[in-house]
Amino acid sequence: HQKGLAAYRAGWCLFNMNQIEKAAAELKTVLSSQELLSRSTGGVVSVDKQFQEEVSRDYATFISRLPFSEKYIEELYNLSPDNAKLAHTQYLASEYERLGQVPASIAAWRFVIGRQSDPKARLEGHVHLAQLQAQHQQRDKAVQDFSMSLSLWKGLGQCVDDTCKNLKIRLKQFVVDWSNLEKKQASEELLDAYKQYLQVFPEEHDLRLWQAQAAQKKGEYDYAMKENLVVAQAIAAQQGTLSEQEKSWLQTSLLAAIE
C-alpha cells in the first residue's frame, strides 16, 4: 500500500500545517479505498487491518479538532476495522472531553454506550456522562446516568477484579467531585446522587457524613441527624478496636447529631 502510505503521510503533513479539514479528508480517502488500504502478500491482495487501525485512530485525532458534527462519529465507527470500532469511538469521546468540547463528548459517549454490550464498559461510559453533565449544570441528566451506572454495578454481582475496583473508585469520585462543585449549597440532585450511592454502598461512612452536612446546609435537619446517627450506630456496633479514622467518624457523627 505504497500509495496509501504516501496519502497517510500527506495527511499528517497537512495536519502539522494546521490544515485540519484537508488532513482529515486525506485520511478519509485512504480509509474509504480498498486499494489504498491493501497490500500484496505472495500474490494475494488484502486489506492491511493494522494499517487501517492506525489510520482510523489518527482520523479520530484529526476530526476531534474540527467543528463538531455527529456525522464524524458515525464515519469513524464505519471506517474503523471491526476490532477497533468501539475503542476508536471511545478515544474520540475522550479527546472531545480533553479538548473541552462537552456536547461533542456527550454525543460520542452516547454513541459508544448504544453499541457496547460489555456491562463494565457501559458503566464506565455512564460515569463519564454523569461527570460531564454535573460539571455543566445538566443535573437531572447527571443523576439519570449515575443511576444507570449504579444499576449496572449491581448487575456485576461480587466483582472484585482490578477493573471493578477502579470502577468503584470512579463511582465514589463522581459524588465527591460533584460535592466539591456545590460546597456552599448542595442541589437536590446532588443529595439524590448521595442517597443512590449509599443504597448500593451503605458502609461508606465518610460519604454519609458529607451527605448529612450537605442536607444540614439545606435546612433538612431531621434527615441530617438521622444520617449522622446511622454512622454512629454502625461504628459503635463494630467488634474490636476502632481505627483512628473510625474514631474520628464516630466523634463527627455524634457531635453533628447533638448540634
Task: Please tally the helical runs, counting DSSP H or I stretches of 4 or more residues.
Answer: 14
What order do the helices and strands follow?
HHHEEHHHHHHHHHHH
Main β sheet profile:
2 strands, antiparallel
Give the spatial strand order of the biggest sheet: 1-2
Beta fraction of the residues?
A: under 5%
**Low-pLDDT segments:** none
* Mean pLDDT over the full residue set: 89
Structural category is: mainly alpha
Radius of gyration: 24 Å
Shape: elongated
How many runs of DSSP E, i.e. beta strands? 2
Fraction in helix: over 70%
Distance between the termini: 75 Å
Give a description of the structure.
With 259 residues, the chain is mainly alpha-helical. Helix content is 75%, strand content 3%. A two-stranded antiparallel ribbon has the order 1-2. A hairpin with a 2-residue loop joins strand 1 (38-41) and strand 2. The longest helix is centred in the middle third of the chain and has 20 residues, at 162-181. The radius of gyration is 24 Å and the shape is elongated.
